[in-house]
Structures are given as C-alpha cells and as structure tokens.
Amino acid sequence: MNPSQPVALIESLDYEGHGVAHVEGKTIFIDGALPYETVSYSSYRKKPSYENADTCAVLKESFLRTTPRCPHFGVCGGCSMQHVEFSAQVAIKQRVLEDSLKHIGKVSAERMLTPIAGPAWGYRHRARLSARLVEKKGGVLVGFHEKRSSYIAEMSECHILPPHISALIVPLREMIYTLSIRDRMPQIEVAVGEKLDILVFRNMDAISAADETILRRFSDTHSQPGRPLQIWLQPKGPDTCYPLYPLDAPKLTYTLRDFSVEMPYYPTEFTQVNPEINNVMVTRALRLLDPQPGERIADMFCGIGNFTLPIARSGADVHGMEGSEALVKRAVENASHNRLEHKVSYEMANLFDVTEESFAALGKFDKMLVDPPRDGAVQLLKALTDDTAPQRIVYVSCNPATLARDAGILVNTKGYTLKAAGIINMFPHTAHVESVAWFEKTGPCKSRKEMDEMEAAETAAREAAKAAKKAREAEAARKKAEEEAERAAKKEARRQHYLANQAYYDARNAAKSGEQ
C-alpha cells in the first residue's frame, strides 16, 4: 500500500455498483469496493461534494467478495460486479429498488416479490462488439470498450456471451485483419437465435469480392451442424442491413414457451438480451396483470409484441403502442405469424408527448402494461384521469430511478396503491437493474389544482435545494480562497523577512560552509 493513498470504510453500494464511503465530510464513490471493506483508493474525478475513485488495495475484505471468473474483469467495461458473490448481486439490486422507491418516489410496496434470477454465465444472446485496427497491439481488437474509455479491451474470451460466441472473438480478430476494409469495420452486432447465430458487420466501405469469399469461409468454418452462422452487412443505418451468406438460413426467432408464441425479429431490432429471464419476466408480468377474456388492455412501448401477444393469448383484446414505425411493422407481422391478429391492434405514437386528451381518445382500458425505456413513462402516467385510468397497471422497468419517480406519480397523485414490486436480474454481473411493479387503482386522482400546487411546491423545493447547494459551494470556495490567501501571505512574509535579513542569512550560510 502507498502511504500517500487515502483509506476509506465502505458503507454501502450505489445503484451503479460503486462502493460508497464518507471521508472528511465528502462522499466518495469507489469502483471495485464492497460494503464492510476497508480500502485504499485513488480519485479520478474530484468535485466539491463528492469524488469518484478506483480501489487501489483491499485492506479488509468483505464476505460478499468473490474471485472474478473473467481474466479481463477490471479492464473490460462490460461487467462491473463479477467481484460480488452472485446471490449478493441479486440482494444488492433488490435493495437498490427498495431504496429508490423510498427516497425518490416516497412510496413502498405492500409486498416485495421474490427476485427473478437465472443463469449467471453465457446468458447474453444480444451484444454489440466493437472492432478496431490497432497495429501496435498486433492487429484488430474485437470486444467491449475498456472501463471509462473509448479504447477497446484486448479480449480473448467473454463469459457472459454463450460459449460458442465467446469462442469467435479471436477468430474474428484474425479474420477481420485479412479484409481489405479491416480499418473500416467498427462494429459487430451479435444475435443468437433458437436455430441460428447472426453476425452483422458494420461495413463503412463496400467489401471486395475477396472480402466476400473470406466472410463466406468464416461462416462455413464456424457454423455448427444444424445451426448456421449467418453473415449480414450493414453499410449505413440499421435499416440498411441485409443477409450476405448463407441465404437459406432459418429465421431469427425466440419463443415465449408459456404462451406458445414464436417471435421472429431482425438482428438490429430491440429484443431482450437474456431469453431465459425474458420468459420468466413475461410470465410474472402477466400473472400480475391477470388478463381476462373480454378485457381491453393497453401495451405501452410494446416493441415487437413481447408482452402484447402473450396478453392476447389470454383472450383479451390488446392495443399496442410504440414510437418506432419499424417495430410496429414487425409487431403486426408477429401477430399474424402467431395467428393473433384478430385480438391485437397496433398504433405508432410518441408516448413521451401524451396528453389527457390524446389518451382519452384511445378509449377506456381495463388494464395497462407499461414497458418504457430508461427515461420512464412520466408524461403517459400524468395523462391519466379518473375517467381514463385503468384499474390495474403493471410496469416493467429498466431503470429503478425512473420507476420510482413514476411510482410516486401513480401513488401520490393518481390514486393507485403499489401492491407489489421486485427485481429481474436480466444482466448478471452488471449493476443494471430491471424490475416489475403492480399498481391497483384504489382512490381518486388529485385535481388539476392540487397537481399544480404539488408541482409548484416540488419546483420551489428543488430551487431551494439548488440555492442551498450553491451557497455551500460558494462558502467552501470562500474558505478555500481564504486559506490560499493566508498561505500566500505567510509565504510572502517569509520572503520579505529573508530579503530584509539577507546579509545575516548569507553570513550564516558562509560560516556553515566554512565549518564543513
């Protein structure tokens, strides 16, 4: 240990998996540190009220710590929690959800659901690998970015990818180096389906005939019996991708077993990365939603129909809404593929710009499932009124902070009770938290006047907090300036004293030199 490095006792983990400590009144977020540990650390970002730091040495180890399985852990930015024992990862994420609901949304669930967890390794069936020609590293690098860096980690394996995909990393590096456009192929999209694997190469220049031969040979070499490795090219945006070889490969699909639903999709379209957990997540969400024949149910942010079609299997009529025209088109095709088009309707809409009037125009829904991106569904939920609010809402979230904010809106202003909530460990060994929550309408919505008053009070509180923070920072800056001025004054006083008595000091120094 370097004696100049500060030491901290870790109190907890934040929502990104960093150890949290307090040193001399400042909050320190320390990468790689765990609760109950004593660590030395080195800061890489310093702010007036907090610092971000890396762990230099673990002086006292936590019982939560385990040995990372991947040799690239700590350099590769793909995982941040391999050093945490697997069951502890799940418990930590559940705590993050509970704390977010309490502190951000000012709500608590009547019941916390058993966490959904599945395979710890080889789970990631969707991935975006970067590729870059780095001659001083010996050729082309393929993998994820390094932690907090635009550089690509020098990888030879990845334990969160399926083993047969991980085994392609080194061959991919070698193959891309032989292409004429080896410095113009920055990305490889990986899609692992039930019957085939697809690699989508982002080619910024056209490939040559020789390049096509190399890519075809790579596919033939690494295809498995009954499971082809299909090569796609993407010359520009995601809508320009197309299959190169083999052209007779089966469709890319995943299956929702409990509902006998097969979902075809394109390799650049959004789907969940963890198909096993997705199966369990859909089943739990539908148990909470409890769709019944004859009910009219909304599926907001429906994507390609991951929840829409299982809801339709129950006999309910489902209206799916999504902001992407391409995804709506795919959802319509998937409804027909599963012969559920008579139970499903779809509509493209910007769900971040919903008003009370536009939501009312959709007609009355008995229940609603919401599965938004990280930004949440704040405008959609604010648009609910007593006349339009569904009796039950199931909210699937990929961000506990925005779920908590939206839960606060539903519970504190829209008359809902948070009946249950729990986490879904969709991304083991990362700090990413997916969750599901069940809300039931138990009271009236607040009036527009009450809402305006609440929003005004919240705005005033935020402004007061900002002003207080600014005042604290100004006071800290003033004290720092005073201390620096005092040090400068003392230094100047010493200099003036020396100048005034220079003859004396020169004589003393000469005398000392003579004695030596």
UniProtKB/TrEMBL annotation:
The keyword Transcription regulation does not apply. Residues 465-491 have a biased composition (Basic and acidic residues). [4Fe-4S] cluster binds at residues 70, 76, 79, 158. SUPFAM superfamilies: Nucleic acid-binding proteins (SSF50249), S-adenosyl-L-methionine-dependent methyltransferases (SSF53335). It comes from Pseudogulbenkiania ferrooxidans 2002. Residues 465-495 are annotated as: Disordered. It catalyses: uridine(1939) in 23S rRNA + S-adenosyl-L-methionine = 5-methyluridine(1939) in 23S rRNA + S-adenosyl-L-homocysteine + H(+). NCBIfam families: PRK13168.1 (NF009639). The active site is at residue 398. This is 23S rRNA (uracil(1939)-C(5))-methyltransferase RlmD. Its EC number is 2.1.1.190. One of its GO terms (biological process) is rRNA base methylation. Keywords: 4Fe-4S, Iron, Iron-sulfur, Metal-binding, Methyltransferase, rRNA processing, S-adenosyl-L-methionine, Transferase.
